[in-house]
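This part of the workshop introduces the protein records we will be handling. To make this concrete, we reproduce a full record directly below.
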Amino acid sequence: MRRKIGAQLWSVLLVLVLVGTIFVPLVSAEKTGENWIDSFDQWVEPRDMSMYTKEIIIEEPDCTISPEEVERTPGLMVINEDVNFLEPEMEVEFLPGHTAHVNVTDDSTRVVKSAKSNFDVVMKNGTFTWYWIQDTVIPHVVNITNFGPTLASGRVLVCSIEDGYAYYQTYSDLLPGETRSVLVPFKVRPDSVGVKPMGVIIQAGPYYEQTYSAILPINGTEIYNNDDSHFPDPNNGDNLETSDLYHFPFYEGYWVISEAAYAGDNTNNPYDTAYRTMQYVNDKMNYTNKSPYLYYITSDVYMQNHPNDDGEYDGVCDEFATLYTAFTRSLGIPTRFLAFTMENATTEEVWGHGIAESWDGNAWIHSDPTWNSFDDPQAYIRAGNIHIDMTHYDDADDSWNTEDPEDPTGDGILRYEDFRTQTYLGEVPRYN
């Protein structure tokens, strides 16, 4: 009973919404052929289908570094477990190019020296790269100052505190009162993605006495490497692109990717990361029937900037799928946004639904944070539906649709017409 919602029904549908009937009055874009936005009666409601998902056990990654690896890797060190990373007051300014400038506003991390020690070298400020791509070298710049009475030589260490390793760069003949920039090349290990607390250690003297230690007020966020030899997108990067719907890692992107890193923290393969991210979004999102979520689709940044009173994000299934897509893409997992209609086999009602699929290196993995369902494309048939009729939506552009005066550009609230690429897939066999 697929039927088109035309302009003549517009006022009727608005009245029905006002009296509490949950219809979705989307405006037809006069497209030819099948298109899901013209053909459903209402959104699906949230369900919990997790009992049908096969048990997924995520093992904590082993980040142990062998002595042999330290020996053959210049600048790599294992952090002494006895190091106490103190927390001085610091100011943070985010800069272009995935970096942040950190300025120390007190010196509480200066180590108390014995009476025999003349070394007092501390961090003054620095510029740190927070966007960590696995198996690449990223730069950190630490500006150090010698408050001691003599020349100082030693090492500056930038640490991945949780993983227990650091890379260092030496400095020499630092004059009393002198400030110097030290560039520390830091190679990101391929152990796990997620949140990476960062620390700085400064050592001085022939025995490398520690004169300074601090945990930084920003975290590194480690993601997968999408080059050809690691984990490429099968569609040449199309499923990793930013858009006006998915903003990582630019603009306000630090806040998108840092929450994504928290969602997928301590996983070391794309399948596990996607599963844990799906669970996080399912828990974080609140299903709502209020405007604008019934009429539009909101961006990841819009959701983050408009939490409800409980600190959760509001939306219907397309917001669930949007946030999941933004998070997984920002962690380097190719993900595509899909929407489909399905017909209830008993009532013949036609429902609209939004989900996603993530690439695990071998196949597209179904993910539905609204229904708490993962790697289970038959969930919709099992729930009593037929004719799972799919469309792939991509290239969201907030200024693409200019026909609707209620849809201003650049506000983070998009119509489905703002997707410049809409690929009709039909009744995909694995879902039907």
User: Anything to note?
Assistant: Residues 224 and 417 are 32 Å apart (CA to CA). The first strand starts at residue 42 and ends at 43. Residues 1-33 have pLDDT under 50 and may be disordered. The chain has seven helices and 22 strands.
